[in-house]
């Protein structure tokens, strides 16, 4: 019977066949240990010379790394294995022999591994990160589907930008200018006026010349937008969503978290509600911590966000940023004209902002004034302004950056490991 590694718990004591690749091996005179992977997981195959024909044992001793195989054997429980099972091998059939596989079990430099990203993905560590990424995506759909949100796909090619065009990739759309999307938000607002509660999940692009461990040129965003929803209600959705994906990973990716050496006790504390501080309070806090360089009206950098996050065991909301440093579409606070109804959610352990959100301006005249104040009067935003002409309502939304979230939950240092094929400032290959 042909099965996958993830299914072996159903076939203890039975002989099965698994299509796999050889990740690694070691052998002595009388026994060979084959580290096998098939995409669903990793398992050890044990080949005992006295229990198989000579040809099978010799084949097992000579198999090269990443050779593809059909391995037949009996499933056994094994408490010493992190997986809990191993395979007592009875036969090995080579499908394709791999010769001189470039990524050996020795240490390799980051650039070498990035040049071989198409192969590095096969490693146990990268496999674990990708499985956690997949679980976050699965849990995302579960969360929003269970709460009545409709999935909507905004365009990737746009004629305008939600936050200005300075960090956008420009291209020609036949005889007019177009940009790769940096956010689907404006289109999601239109969708919310039609469907009530919506979310998107897709690629976004920022032509930002940054080399930090938190930045990618191409990354994926989950962007919910909700009609008849004010800022405070949106914050509750955000903290419930983040709690849900963290707890889902804890429940369904224990083996992967263990592979990565993640301290799960920190993740177990991630349950709503989350602490909140205002921008004003954050500035005061940073001054107390010796950050004399920052003044009211400045945006926070990575050291500032990390210092704030270190005071909490959970993600922390920083609310009500100055109007002057936030995009044109954010609703001013009712009691102050200099700040807006927005929040950034800062992850613990130095991973930075994972969510940015706000209540959107729903008054036609106010939005028109804001567009003019930002020099956005070309007509490209006419459709967006029209949303405030025909049955406008209070509405709010936010965007979660998938890769930063994967990095935080999995505990990896750099976002380049959290996406299958990262696009960095100096990397477009492979």
Automatic annotation (TrEMBL):
Choose any GO biological process term that the UniProt entry carries and state it. Answer: asparaginyl-tRNA aminoacylation
Its catalytic activity?
A: tRNA(Asn) + L-asparagine + ATP = L-asparaginyl-tRNA(Asn) + AMP + diphosphate + H(+)
Indicate the segments forming the Aminoacyl-transfer RNA synthetases class-II family profile domain, all copies. Answer: 130-430
Cytoplasm keyword on record: yes
InterPro entries associated with the record = Aa-tRNA-synt_II (IPR004364), aa-tRNA-synth_II (IPR006195), aa-tRNA-synth_II/BPL/LPL (IPR045864), Asn-tRNA-ligase (IPR004522), Asp/Asn-tRNA-synth_IIb (IPR002312), NA-bd_OB-fold (IPR012340), NA-bd_OB_tRNA (IPR004365)
Q: How does it assemble?
A: Homodimer.
The protein's location, in the record's own words, is: Cytoplasm
Family classification: Belongs to the class-II aminoacyl-tRNA synthetase family.
Q: What is this protein called?
A: Asparagine--tRNA ligase
List the Gene Ontology MF annotations in alphabetical order. asparagine-tRNA ligase activity; ATP binding; catalytic activity, acting on a protein; nucleic acid binding; transferase activity
- Top enzyme class, one word, equals ligase
Q: Where are the transmembrane segments?
A: none
Q: What gene name does this entry carry?
A: asnS
Instruction: Provide this UniProt record's keywords sorted from A to Z.
Output: Aminoacyl-tRNA synthetase, ATP-binding, Cytoplasm, Ligase, Nucleotide-binding, Protein biosynthesis
- The organism's superkingdom is given as Bacteria
Entry GO CC: cytoplasm
Which EC number(s) are documented for this chain?
6.1.1.22
């Amino acid at each position: 019977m042909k099965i996958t590694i993830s299914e072996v718990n159903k076939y203890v004591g039975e002989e099965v066949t698994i299509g796999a690749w050889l990740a690694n091996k070691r052998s002595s005179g009388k026994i060979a240990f084959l580290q096998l992977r098939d995409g669903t997981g990793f398992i050890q195959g044990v080949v005992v010379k006295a229990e198989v024909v000579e040809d099978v044992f010799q084949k097992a001793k000579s198999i090269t790394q990443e050779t593809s195989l059909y391995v037949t054997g009996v499933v056994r429980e094994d408490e010493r294995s992190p997986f809990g099972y191993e395979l007592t091998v009875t036969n090995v059939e080579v499908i394709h022999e791999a010769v001189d596989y470039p990524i050996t079990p020795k240490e390799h430099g980051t650039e070498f591994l990035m040049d071989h990203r198409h192969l590095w993905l096969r490693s146990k560590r990268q496999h674990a990160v990708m499985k956690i990424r997949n679980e976050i995506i699965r849990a995302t759909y579960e969360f929003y589907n269970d709460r009545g949100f409709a999935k909507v796909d905004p365009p990737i090619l746009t004629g305008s930008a939600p936050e200005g065009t300075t960090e956008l990739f420009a291209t020609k759309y036949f005889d007019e200018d177009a940009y790769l999307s940096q956010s689907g938000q404006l289109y999601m607002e239109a969708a919310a006026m039609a469907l009530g509660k919506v979310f998107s999940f897709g690629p976004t692009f920022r032509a930002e010349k940054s080399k930090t461990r938190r930045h990618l040129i191409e990354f994926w965003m989950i962007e919910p937008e909700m009609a008849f929803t004010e800022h405070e209600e949106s914050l509750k959705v955000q903290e419930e969503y983040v709690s849900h994906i963290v707890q889902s990973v804890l429940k369904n990716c224990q083996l992967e978290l263990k592979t990565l050496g993640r301290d799960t006790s920190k993740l177990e504390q991630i349950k709503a509600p989350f602490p909140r501080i205002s921008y004003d309070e954050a500035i005061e806090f940073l001054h107390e911590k010796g950050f004399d360089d920052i003044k009211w009206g400045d945006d926070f950098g990575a050291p500032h966000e990390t210092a704030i996050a270190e005071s909490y065991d959970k993600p922390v909301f920083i609310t009500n940023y100055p109007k002057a440093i936030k995009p044109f579409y954010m609703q001013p606070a009712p009691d102050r004209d200099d700040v807006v109804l927005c929040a950034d959610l800062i992850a613990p352990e130095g991973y930075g902002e994972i969510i940015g959100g706000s209540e959107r301006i729903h008054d036609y005249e106010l939005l028109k004034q804001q567009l003019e104040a930002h020099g956005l009067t070309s007509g490209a935003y006419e459709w967006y302004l029209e949303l405030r002409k025909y049955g406008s309502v209070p509405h709010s939304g936010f965007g979660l950056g998938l890769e930063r979230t994967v990095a935080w939950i999995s505990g990896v240092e750099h976002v380049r490991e959290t996406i299958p094929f990262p696009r960095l400032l100096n990397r477009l290959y492979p």
